[in-house]
Amino acid sequence: MTQPASVSDWRERAKKRLPHMMFEYIDGGAYAETTLRRNVEAIERIALRQRILTDVSKLQLSTELFGQKLAMPLLLAPVGMAGLYARRGEVQAARAAQAAGLPFCLSTVSICSIEEVRAGTTEPIWFQLYMIKDRGYMEALLQRAKAAGTKVLIFTVDLPVAGARYRDVRSGLSGVLSPLDKLKRGINGAMHPHWMWNVFLNGRPQSFGNLVDAMPNAKGTNDFAMWIGKNFDSSVSWEDFAWVRERWDGPIIIKGILDAEDAKRAAEVGADGIVVSNHGGRQLDGVPAAIEALPPIMRVVGDRMTVLMDGGVRSGLDVLKALALGAKGVLIGRAWAYALGGGGEAGVRAMLLTMQRELEVAMALTGCTDVRTAGEHLLVRDR
Ligand code: FNR
Fold first, then answer.
1. N or C: which terminus of the chain carries fewer CB neighbours within 10 A?
2. Is residue 96 part of a domain?
3. How many other CB atoms are there within 10 angstroms of residue 311's CB atom?
4. What is the mean pLDDT of residues 139-144?
5. What is the DSSP track for 67-93?
6. Are 267 and 228 in contact (CB under 8 A)?
7. What is the pLDDT of residue 219?
8. Which residues line ligand 1 (CB under 6 A)?
9. Is 36 strand, coil or helix?
10. pLDDT recorded at residue 226
């Protein structure tokens, strides 16, 4: 393939470069993957409204979220284990995001620790929190995030238990492996020399940087999956939000809301923002697409808090559709994971530039000169 142009090209490149198991982890979703597909298809079904002869020679893409200026209303969603897609992958992706003027949100379950990512970047990053049972460890983790200069915390709440991800079982990433499975996995790794050299041999350590002290005995991803099962706290409730709130003075965004009742509660308990999200179709299969869940939530809390969304966003056109339905910003997960796996930091930079160009074109041809004015008037609705 020549230079990848779109996100789907980056997906193809990642598929070639990454070991099967790693690609499947990024690409897959829960159970029969109906929600994963629905996220993309529901966005595809939305029609942009083409307008003509408006002066679109000057376009305003930049916006502000939680006191931070963004070059466009887009940010890199927390994605676990990105240090296995490219050498010290979270550092590379964070650098690409900062070069593009966009926030990077580091996952709790990243390979690189928050300190390592911060040391590799010029500005603070955002941090995503999963609640584990050991509250002393959680408290220390929040302190580490603060010490790294993090202001914005994304608290992910849609993973009290892990979704049933059968691709990971088939690929050998999770579940119990026989010696033959382990051998097959090794051979598949060896068939990807670029990854073997860059990530497996020269990208060490491949431990979970933010959690190493909490899980000294976990050796690989299979142990890790078991560790998550034992240590992620499935008793997390609204009271725990208050616990986090007491320990974090910056903005807190609750991620993983699909229901208007929950959005209302999030506003009532003092969340600064929410991400309307079904975890990219990786948790409860059969729930609505995130973009379908957005309008009813906007009606209830749109004027009370900052509403972001993610799930199925693969282009700048998709970004404009989500903004038109009220989101103040959009997160991308797989889009950057594919680009990182396919081309490292340069890949993520190129992909973000593509998204920016696509957003510019979509704005120009819908006659939208300022992202902050995007609204339903940019869409063709049933009439
Ligand atoms: C995720 N997501 C995720 N979310 C989170 O809060 N913490 C995490 O560690 C992860 N890890 C993760 C790994 C991978 C490989 C993917 C694809 C996703 C969910 C992510 O933040 C986001 O909600 C979705 O990726 C959005 O959907 P798209 O953009 O991938 O369609």
1. C
2. yes
3. 34
4. 98
5. TEEESSSEEEPP-TTGGGTSTTHHHHH
6. no
7. 65
8. 25-26, 39, 77-80, 107, 109, 128, 156, 255, 277, 279-280, 282, 310-313, 331-335, 337
9. helix
10. 79
Q: CA 307 to CA 224: how far, in whole Å?
A: 32
> Can you name the residues that pair with 274 across neighbouring β-strands?
254, 307
Is the bond leading into 179 cis (omega within 30 degrees of zero)? Answer: no
Q: What is the CATH number of the domain that holds 221?
A: 3.20.20.70
User: Which tokens belong to 216?
Assistant: 């000294």
Chain centre to alpha carbon of residue 112: 16
Q: How many domains does the chain have?
A: 1
Residue 116 located in a structural domain: yes
Beta bridge partners of 330: 74, 309
**Distance from residue 58's CA to the centre of ligand 1 (Å):** 34
Residues 267 and 364: their CA atoms lie apart, in Å, by: 34
Please give the mean pLDDT across all residues of the chain. 95
Average pLDDT (46-68) is 98
What percent of the chain clears pLDDT 90, i.e. is strictly above it? 90
Residue 260 CA: distances (Å) to CA of 52, 123, 234, 358: 36, 34, 22, 31
Tokens representing 205 are: 């350590």
Tens of pLDDT along 215-235? 866 666 677 777 888 889 999
383 inside domain: no
Tokens 């006659």 identify what position? 367
